[in-house]
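This part of the workshop introduces the protein records we will be handling. A record pairs a protein's sequence with a compact description of its fold. As an example, a complete record with its sequence and its structure tokens follows.

_____
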Amino acid sequence: MAELDTVFEYYGLSDPFPTSWAESTVQEGQFALRPSGYFNSSDVLKTDKGTSGDGRDTRTLQRDFDMFVTMKSTLDTAYREMKKDFLQEVKDWGVVVIGQQIDEANIKAAQIMKPIMDNKSRGDRLKATLSLIEKNRYLFDLPATLLENIKCGDHDSLVRDYRRGIALTEEIRTLPHSTELSDFLVQQRRVIERIWGEVEVVVEGYKRSIWKQLSQTRPDDNYILYISILLELGVEDNPIWVWLQTLVDNLKRQMDDAFDDLNSSLQILRKDVFNASPRSMDTIAGHLLNAISSPKLDGNINARDLPEIVRMWVTMNEVIEEVAKYFGKQITLFWECASGFLDGRTQSVLPVGPNGQSKVHLTLSQEEEARIRSDARELVEIYASRVVDFFVQSVADSAEKITSIKRAKSIDSEYESQATTPQEEQKVMSMRKESVMSLSASARLANSLKTDRIAEAQLEIEKPPLALQQPSASTPSSGSEKNFELYAFLPPSANAIGTTFYLSDILNTLGSVASELAGLSISSRHIDVLRTMMSTVRERCVSAACLSWQQDAKQFNMMEDWHSTSSRKCTMIPALFLQYQSVVLDGLQRLVYIPGAEKKSKVVVILPPSSKLVSNIKTQFANSIFLALNGLVQDAVASDKKMNDINGSAGKFGGPKSMVVNDPVALVAPMELRLLLMICNIAEMKANVVSSLFERFSTLFSIQLTDNSNIIGDAMKQLDEQLFSTYMKKKRGIFTTIIRAGILKSGIRWSELGKPTDVSAYICQVLLQLVLVHMQVASIGPMLVTRVITDLLHHIVNTILESFRQIDKFSLGGMLQATVDVEFVNQKMTSYGTPEIESLYQACYATIQDATDRSKMEVDVMTRQLEQMKKLLLKCHKQSRLEFSCFKDEMRSKE
């Protein structure tokens, strides 16, 4: 319109369009304007009065009409002029400039009005948002509220606020939809969903932390709290089932790690024992002597065995006790928790979750119940398997397992760095299991039983030692060390007292835990597993103790100091052997019957020992006696040089292997003394020690040892005879030399001798030598005096007889001299006479008479000579009363 006003003004027109005009039309290229309040010309012509139809007069109408004609003419002229100049199609009908001006005006208006409209729109949105926030302030504050509850550990408030938020959100989600509220409702729901998304992020993170805490929760912790929280928040997985399965997996892994660590630590300690300085005979004897003196190993336990050995025992005892009791308790707690879920007692106090969402998790299916029972049984089986595996493996098996574990860990570190998916991680775990468990527990048990049979075959009763020429070795044999490698849990060269003491403690602990586990109402199968475990471990412990027993028996001679005791004329060995064997038998009895195991259930787990096991102990008992005697006998018959060499290489601790013989340097007793002491020891052992041990064994193991008693008795008798013969052989040789030299080589002419005036010198030498023997034997073993002197007397008379038989002829004087000699011996040694010796005397008399020439002898002369001979004998007895008084004293002691 502004542009039209400009045109009208250009042509000198003013207000050509009354404001009352409402319509304009163009017909046939002309403007046709019709005022809404006027009539057209035809209307004027039709009026029969001087006024128009609406009451105006004709002049006014005529004026208006003229004006109209004029204006129309003007417009027509203007239109024609405009049509000629700018109202053309090429000039967009004359509105190009107008359009440009309008566009420019719109741009300027937009620049001015857009910020205003944007601010208005932002204000409207802010008002709507504030209204929405005010109306749903609780939901907007809910993420921060939940985070604060989590920070404070307020689980109850968190669950309460979260469930209230669920209710409000569901209420908004279910608002009725209408056309008027559609835009606002969509916007509101969109905002609420975004807020609820943040709430879910917070809650899901909290759920993950609760899942993690639940996975690390043990049965004796407050696991119900975490399960309740998850059920109240609502979860897809069943937290009860997941927790039980996680608990089973954790216990399996913990058992593997615990026993692997135990195995590794003990092998390190075992290496320490090997790397320890070599033990001398004195050290071994000293430790064994201390162990015998204090069998309960109280006080300074390091003095009872090598410190490294004691350290290994103590460590193993402590760790096994800790591991066994821990896993026994955890398995028991697991089953108690599982039983509560199986019978539904525990679920009765658990929440059902929002809208009963978690109710489905409060009931276990039959498959899940069966799986839980199977898991409980499997835990017991794994525990028993690892215990058995620890005791049945050899040193080589242990080393191989340690290597496998290291290799598995190396594989883990390599593959875990590459594993990016759960499937790859599962593959790594499978490879680890296959690597570590390449040899199953059953296979290890089979190998162990095989090696046990080999070791037992090597420890069977040996024949009584007959060869007494070789001394025993000063250190354990290589075969003994090899046998120790069959038992990874046995410290090398550990003595039997410490072995039985610590192993009995270990068996008591294992038996107590097994008894507790057997009381769980899991199944009958798990009870059989525990019984098998205890029987297997018991057999291995008994076999290990028997190995140490035999080693000690071979080394028992190291405690011999070859000093006679004050109370008995023998060494300390018989008393020590009785005490040692008694302590070992008591320890073995504890290993076999495990009396210290607590009976925490009515189920019997520790079954009576098999007859084979008791029979093996009986065999080892007899063998230990043989081995100990054999070592002692070999020391007794060893040469003085050999024994002094052995003694010189050993340290001195004021006891075994040291004896001062008129010299500041401690030397081993001479062979003759050792033989006598050993004979006394055997006599003491046969009379008191062995019988007491047999009685003790029968009482402890309820088995008779009649056959073994006879065998050992015969063997000890044979040893005694051999030792006595060895001792007497040298003595007999001395007397043989004296007698044969005096009768046959002294220059005496028996066929020309005159009347005797004294007893022959060789007889005095023999008796004096016999006095020395008497003194030696009486100082060592008084009970042997009669036996030794009688034996030597028999040998002396027999040697005299054999020597006289070599004399062809006796003169009267020679006959009298020979008779005086024999009779003097006979009268001096009356207290040692025996029927056999008496017969030898008579044989001597007869031999002398048979070789005497009686042709020139008169009866009265013979009678006088015999009377003089009696006087001579009486005189000789008086003269030698002091020299040979020991024989009289012996006779008086007999009377």
Summary: The longest helix spans residues 96-135. The CA atoms of residues 546 and 620 lie 7 Å apart. The chain has a mean pLDDT of 77. The longest strand covers residues 21-27.
